Amino acid sequence: MAAELAARGHDVRVYERRAAAAQPALTELDGYRVERVPVGPPDVLSTAELVPFVAEYGRWLAGQWAGDWTPDVVHGHYWVGGLAAAHAVRATDIPVVQTFHSLGVEQLRHLGSRYGGPGERIPLERALTRAVDVAVAQCNDEVDELTRMGLQRTAVAMVPTGVDTGQFHPDGEAAPRDQRPRILSVGGLAPGHGQDDLIRAMRLVGDAELVIAGGPPAERLDGHAEARRLRELAERAGVAEQVKLVGAVPHDQMATWYRSADVVACTPHYASAGRVSLEAMACGVPVVGYAMGGIADAVVDEVTGKLVPPGDVRTLGVTLRRLLSDNAGRFAYGHAAVDRVRCSYTWERTATALERLYERVIGRRRPAPPIEPTPVEVTPPVEVAVSERGPVEAA
């Protein structure tokens, strides 16, 4: 998003906390700047460990913006980044746009006891909704959730995430595979990501392999608690020979894994953006996913893939089996999936929507210019072209 906005002539500066002593304070990337904030220890911290540094982060940003460069708008990402952004601008008239990417109250509802977020997250997210000008939702379910949290519908904008179609496309190298049909699942190895549903469903799929990409690097999977749990589940279900965990895959290599699959299965118990389903569709692979969140928005049932009720393992297994045996259906779904992404989910479309949103919130905050009295004499017409490309801020 930052690269696309910068290419349009905006001055974009991205701020992230310095998480390693060796990280440079400033990096130039694709036309925008990444500035690393020296707040907290130079180490990777959990979300809960970041919360005590939010106010300090905000004060550092405010100090930076008190000099020669001040943003026209600040865009906060995730709830901790949003809190820092709101803290930084509280004594100014700079508007704040906020993308949560996920909401604690919705994760708690879907994950129940498996929800592992810090206790202060949900009340702080509610407070943040009252401090921002507009909240950006990435799917229709998130729009509904934000309004239930107290935001007026006019203060919520739906802007789906984008896909880099230069990286994710049907043509190119595919990861090695054997002769069996391949189902690919992509996501972190943590309770609630739905890999256990897929493993149980494999009993109904037949002779196919399930490849699970995500989690720690492959060499560390043996010591990972969730990886061990999933392998034990596969043993008990009698499908251990069909389930393969490959560990973390660099994002720039993910397209090869998508292209190697016959079907990509998206079965998380909570998903706001549906990024995996969109990347798979951009690669021409049909998606079978749970009908919820960003997945339900991205996948058109019976057009680009199949949607099944969340948690319905039997229907999931039967749907996968039928689609794997339907070569013509998968071909048609794959072509329609590519068209859908290229028409509706490119970063260009996302950036255009955000540009309009930024202009709207800036216009609300800026005072109207004084009305000058109209002169009596007639003056010749003058053509004026005004192009405003002020700084856009991401925190």
TrEMBL record:
Gene3D superfamilies: Glycogen Phosphorylase B. Pfam families: Glyco_trans_4_4, Glycos_transf_1. Keywords: Glycosyltransferase, Transferase. It comes from the Bacteria. Residues 1-162 form the Glycosyltransferase subfamily 4-like N-terminal domain. Residues 177-328 form the Glycosyl transferase family domain. InterPro entries: Glyco_trans_1, Glyco_trans_4-like_N, Glycosyltransferase_grp1. The keyword Transferase applies. Residues 372-395 are annotated as: Disordered. Residues 374-385 have a biased composition (Low complexity). This is Glycosyltransferase involved in cell wall biosynthesis. It comes from Micromonospora echinospora (Micromonospora purpurea).
